[in-house]
Write a structure and sequence with these properties.
It is globular, with a radius of gyration of 13 Å. By secondary structure, it is mainly α. The chain has helices at about 5-15, 60-65, 75-100, and strands at about 30, 55. It has one domain. It has three helices and two strands. A two-stranded antiparallel sheet has the order 1-2.
Length: about 100
């Protein structure tokens, strides 16, 4: 039996899956949340956030949310970036629940 994390990541890569943000198809991968609250969701040294905080993103959308995209000193943009990424993680989790991947 596969773990929750394995099921989530397999679903993110599954054929026919679309990017949760732009709806493109073909290159979707699961990306763990890395916003300002990441440590509240289980992130630690060598440990990713909880599998519920994974967004199904295409390559182009993934570039927008890569760590280091927003300067640490720019708090307002960091909060907006974090909120946006968290939203797409939640939308991806809702889609997985509706598909029956997680219950």
């Amino acid at each position: 039996m596969r773990t929750l994390s394995e099921r989530v990541m397999a679903d993110a890569r599954s054929e026919g899956n679309t990017c949760i943000r732009c709806q493109s198809t073909g290159s979707t991968c699961g990306r763990h949340y890395n916003g300002i609250r990441q440590h509240k969701y289980g992130k630690g040294r060598g440990i990713k956030c909880h599998p519920f905080l994974v967004a199904d993103l295409c390559f182009e959308c993934d570039k927008l949310f890569q760590e280091g995209t927003v300067a640490k000193a720019d708090l307002m943009n960091r909060v907006a970036y974090s909120e946006d990424f968290q939203h797409w993680c939640i939308m991806s989790t809702i889609r997985r629940v509706e598909r029956g991947v997680i219950s």
